[in-house]
Amino acid sequence: MKKSIVCFLLPFLLWNCAEKVMEKPENLIPKEKMVLILHDLAILEAAKSSFKSTWDQHGMETMEFLYKQYGIDSVQFAQSDLYYASVPLEYQSIYEQVDGMLEKKQKALEDLTKQRNDSIKEVNQAMRDSLGTIKDEESELE
Questions:
Q1: Is residue 58 part of a domain?
Q2: Taking the CB of residue 29, how many other CB atoms lie within 10 A of it?
Q3: Is 114 helix (H, G, I), strand (E, B) or coil?
Q4: How far apart are CA 40 and CA 36, in angstroms?
Q5: Is 4 part of any domain?
Q6: Nearest Cα to Cα of residue 94 among 59, 72, 102
């Protein structure tokens, strides 16, 4: 009985999640562009929190930078964000794409860090080997 109720209600719930609560604004930021804006916003906010004093010292404004970078204004961004938020499945899709992009960047940075650390280890080992050879040669000379 419970299973049949769930099967009956599930399509209505999914349909309601996809239903638009508000009309599309005339100057709606396209979904692909919104993904890029939110991706850059996440990175800039992370940088801002990590380097707050430098950020403040240079008087950088995250949103003003993004508005200029993407040729949008605050009203267009707010209306677009509100519209996408009113369509939960669309909004979720946008944030999943942003998350995917951030995960790719994180993995790339981790890979670069590992490569750098491996290179440093190799150089250190080569230096140790060279020093050992020099010490062996000095011992033979004595």
A1: yes
A2: 21
A3: helix
A4: 6
A5: no
A6: 102
Half-sphere exposure of 96 (CA within 13 A, CB side): 6
Which SS3 state, helix, strand or coil, does residue 73 take? coil
Tell me the average pLDDT across 75-93: 94
| pTM of the predicted model as reported, rounded to 2 decimal places | 0.67
User: Rounded CA gap, 44 and 85, in Å?
Assistant: 22
101-115 pLDDT, tens digit each: 999 998 988 888 888
Q: What is the 3-state secondary structure (H, E, C) of 17-50?
A: HHCCCCCCCCCCCCHHHHHHHHHHHHHHHHHHHH
At residue 23's C-alpha, the angle toward residues 19 and 25, to 5°, is 135
Task: Give the chain's domain count.
Answer: 1
